[in-house]
Amino acid sequence: MAPPLSRRTLLQSAVLAAAVPGVTATAAAQASAATLPAPSSWALQPFALEDVALGPGIFTDKRELMLDHARGYDVNRLLQVFRANAGLSTLGAVAPGGWEGLDGEANGNLRGHYTGHFLTMLAQASAGAGEQVFTEKIRSMVGALTEVREALRRDPAVLSVAGRFGTGAEHVRGSYQYVDLPATVLGGAPSITLSAWVKPTHDGAWGRVFDFGNDTTRYLYLAARNGSGVPRFAITTGGAGGEQGLNGTAALPLNEWSHLAVTIADGTGTLYVNGTAVARNTAMTLTPTALGTLTNNWLGRSNYSADPVFAGAYDEFNVWSRALTAAEITELQGARAAETAAGRGDLASYDFDETTGGTFADSSGRDLTATLRRTWGGPSHPGFLAAYPETQFILLESMTGSDYTRVWAPYYTAHKILRGLLDAYLATDDDRALDLASGMGDWMYARLSKLPEATLQRMWGIFSSGEFGGIVEAICDLHALTGRAEHLALARLFDLDRLIDACAANTDTLDGLHANQHIPIFTGLVRLYDATGEARYLTAAKNFWAMVVPHRTYGIGGTSTGEFWKARDVIAGTISTTTAETCCAYNMLKLSRMLFFHEQDPAYMDYYERALFNQVLGSKQDRADAEKPLVTYFIGLTPGHVRDYTPKQGTTCCEGTGMESATKYQDSVYFKKADDSALYVNLYSPSTLTWAEKGVTVTQTTAFPREQGSKLTVKGRTAAFELRLRVPSWATAGFRVTVNGRTVDGTPTPGSYFTVSRTWRDGDTVRVSLPFRLRVEKALDDPSLQTLFYGPVNLVARDPATGHLEFGLYGNAALSGDLLPSLTPVTGAPLHFTLDGTEFAPFFEGTEDPTHAYFRRSEPRVVFGTADSGVANPVKADGTSLLDEIWAGAPFQGKGALVARVRSTVDAWVSAGLLGQADGETVVHTARTASYAH
């Protein structure tokens, strides 16, 4: 059953139903139940995702692929790591693995981040697609995370499972739980038997079934698996080098009950596995008597801190003050100890029959009650929520250098979770989500506000370990919802002053910095400006953006190589198989969008279109998969690169942001002025905008970019507003606007907005024509290395060669300067062309074809209109060729204008000694006699 509509949704629905014929309350009720107020400093405001419905086209096709993933993926898998950390039942779910698993990169130290991304995707999918399944998944996840936080605030409680004979106690991997026994458990016995039923669930080495000791010098332990994968018992008073041991002969099976027993008496130790003696040591002189009373007496935990906690279940654990016979050990295989001749252990006997609480009764008669504990202590501090303990946050505070195997960006992960919860709240109005988010803010403030300023600056400057992603933006949004001063104060605690000050002074210090660690910082700074009015925040963000675009930006809109920035204006010199991390494009789009709210510089939206239509669309593979989002991490720009849509070990940051990108394609198609006096059309994309405040809808009908134009139809009330249409910087072949068939006066300028101001009436139709031209963009540090664009679309050559392909483009250039006539369209494949037998296709197509985003420009001879002069194309010292200089004068009004340009350029080059007189005349003659496309 669908949840009841909120008051806001019902009011908006009523307004639209009255204003726009045919719009019912059900159709209009796509608005979020909760609203994030737009800052008063924004000159422009975005529309909610639910206010912009995508029409058929490339964006809808890509989104549908991601929605299949959102619908099909079991969220219990994401919740597994959270529940495990809290000691709750994981419901049999298997962790996603990769960065979301304990066996993933850096020991899974980033786990939990992906759940935040997934929540955001679900929230966006719910708003954009309106399917109840997404809302239900959000509510399920929020409910589970609420239970997780509650469990983390308590002492651990037994997780009861089916045992070997009755019930058992499970220690879920990732729970860091163990059983603490009283110090007198071994009783200083000269002879002993230790017996346990265990069900291992993981094959990690050195997890302890039990470990009794003071430190790493005096102890006795039984490991389910040693370094060779077999059980090992050892006892020592002299550390690892003095161990007297017993090694098994085969690995214990996973997810099955096994019985382990060790006896020591009269200098002989014996190890039994499932009733069979598998190892005997007749020189085992040490006994518990030699160890004395020990401090740490643990089931499941090692005295060596680097060893893992035992993952699995326990049934009986017994300790006798004598060595049981082989027959007695055999009898234990079929019945509880109490039902055998051996009887219960006289030193300790635990049945693990408890189903609640956090203690285990001792039935030996000694009343040695055992206690369930966490290795990291506990409970967690109020508000804390994560898929791992607070330890990473604690360790970061004393770190001076990066080590992601110990600490991997805990505040980055906190950001993803916080952002996901905020989006969940905005999508569903579920107060539990806001409570969880607010609690995280309270917890972070309680922790960070106590640290000295110098400690904070050191932390945030550490590569990787100190990375905090877009947490400042999320905290500012939290503050906008709660109004609590502590939350705004928390946002300012993340100021990295040396970076902010350098960028505010327009000093470029980006060389050598990790790109994605720093880009989202600036989106947060813009939001801090919104909240505080402190100008240096906004100035720093604007200057930073200009340091990246175009100076560190590839043609597709991506940035970074091997995750890092290099020197300014080095493009060709940084191309590798690990260029253009997908997260960087995601975050640059967010920053561009937010800066545009403040200052309507069309360059921001030009970049937005470039990165969205190329890298972001191209990062998503064109096939569905319920288990994987199929998104790139890096997009290598080396010749013949094949995109990897299942990067690293999976569940990476880029797959997370990729899920988000694919469910919010419509978020920047339209903006409005804060006073509702103007509508900005930023992107040409099939869509329908519902503008409730004006009582109108605006439907954009187009197949762009497969169509070179768009039609906008206004429906609803009569309303006065300015329609501001973006004129892309590449639209040099003309930009024409008609309203109801009549041309609108004015001179559109590429790289600007064209304004149509009128009172709009129901049925008004606007047609926009923006013809494409084929053009090249040159690498800033190597003009001969170029990438090809047709309008907004980056065209890549599909070829398995691993060296740069060479192409010439002037051979059949049009008088307009358009290079398109040099290419041959592929019939039935829009935006596909061939050149010299090589296919060029849109970068946005998510295939696994080997591609060449850059090629080597080669114009060895002077050719006009396919007529070859036979004259070599001379080149200046700066790389500019004769043909470059001639065609720089395009567009030409006619052939005569081109020939005049050829004559003046040839004369200049002859005078400079760069071209012979005779060759010059041949060039002019060829230009005069050639035929040209227009």
Distance between the termini: 62 Å
Q: How many runs of DSSP E, i.e. beta strands? A: 39
**Derived structural class:** alpha+beta
Largest sheet: 9 strands, mixed
Q: Spans with pLDDT under 50 lasting ≥5 residues? A: 1-32
* Mean pLDDT rating: 95
Number of helices: 23
Overall shape: elongated
Radius of gyration: 34 Å
Strand content: 15-25%
The percentage helix is 25-40%
Short description:
With 934 residues, the chain is α+β, with helices and mostly antiparallel strands. Helix content is 30%, strand content 21%.
Structure notes:
The protein has 23 helices and 39 strands. It is α+β, with helices and mostly antiparallel strands and 934 residues long. The strands form 6 sheets. Strands 29, 30, 31, 32, 33, 34, 35, 36 and 37 form a 9-stranded mixed beta sheet that branches. Strands 3, 4, 6, 11, 12, 13, 15 and 16 form an 8-stranded antiparallel beta sheet that branches. An 8-stranded antiparallel beta sheet has the order 10-9-8-7-14-5-18-17, with no helix packed on it. The two termini are 62 Å apart. Residues 1-32 have low confidence and may be disordered.
